[in-house]
Amino acid sequence: MTGNTVIFVTDKRQGNLAAYLPGKVRLLDWRRGFEMKEAHKILEGSRQVILPVPVAKIERNHDVNKFLKEELTKEKMKGQKVFGGVFSPEWKQQFEDAGVEYWDLMEDAAVVHKNAQITAEATVAEILKYSEYSIRGQKIIVAGYGKCGREIANLLAAMGAKVTVLARTVEARRFARAEGHEAVDFSYGPEEAYGARTIVNTVPAMVIREPVIREMHSDAVIIDIASRPGGCDLMAAEAYGIKVVAALGLPGIYTTKSSAKVLADAVLAHTQTDQDRKGEREWIFQIAI
């Protein structure tokens, strides 16, 4: 097994990864006659494989999904490291059963923190794209005060927005208030929505419901960055004519080079040795899927 790296590319962030890793790059495209036997050979000759963030993006291509689940868990792949983001329980179980070492990049504290910062910047871009109002002076609701919710709320406040945080727990609301925001329980959502022109949802559960949506102004917008199925009642939003933007995978859309470097730094932290620094790794195979 050589020091080669294989990257499966589904977005610009993944496509920029190679620029921050040592090795000569070879571009391949699964969609344009890339032969299965060559894929077998490349994987067998690699020491690390980098899957998308989230790994679920692979499932859009049935052939690639099936191929990787079979190949990456073969006996001869032991000793190889597999990286990706948000591995499903099924993926984790298959790797553990096969004795394959894997790293979930979205469980790396540094990646999560930097990813949240990038997501906040990208969320601002989405607001400016879809809202008819300036951020400064605007009342904006941020639903959820986890890592992304906190970064978004703080960035919007720094830009002059009047931020109200909706959070379930007393601790989260106290934390939000300590950082200078209004903060209430979700039960106060309808009352807060009346004066807001933008809601940013970060909660991957149904929290922006009909009672909130019906109080929103007709030109308001909901930016939902939560993973599917999101946290907004889409039927209610359609009934009241409220625009909902499913803003998923923002680091793979905005600032893609900075986003790629965040992932690359985490990969290098888990793989780089003195032998690596002497140039053992030879090739980086980027496979578009």
Give an overview in words.
The protein is built from twelve helices and twelve strands. The protein has 289 residues and is an alpha/beta fold. The strands form two sheets. It has a six-stranded parallel beta sheet with strand order 2-12-1-3-4-5. A six-stranded parallel beta sheet has the order 8-7-6-9-10-11. Helix 5 packs across helix 6 (147-158) and helix 5 runs antiparallel to helix 11 (256-271).
Strand content: 15-25%
Please report the number of helical segments.
12
* N- and C-termini, Cα separation: 24 Å
Biggest β-sheet strands, sense, barrel: 6 strands, parallel
Rg from C-alpha positions? 21 Å
Give descriptors for this structure.
289 residues; alpha/beta; 6-stranded parallel beta sheet; elongated
Secondary-structure topology with pairs:
Elements: E1 4-9, H1 12-16, E2 24-29, H2 36-44, E3 46-50, H3 62-71, E4 81-84, H4 89-98, E5 101-104, H5 109-130, E6 139-143, H6 147-158, E7 162-166, H7 170-178, E8 182-184, H8 189-193, E9 198-201, H9 210-213, E10 221-224, H10 234-239, E11 243-246, H11 256-271, H12 274-277, E12 283-288
Parallel strand pairs: 1-3, 1-12, 2-12, 3-4, 4-5, 6-7, 6-9, 7-8, 9-10, 10-11
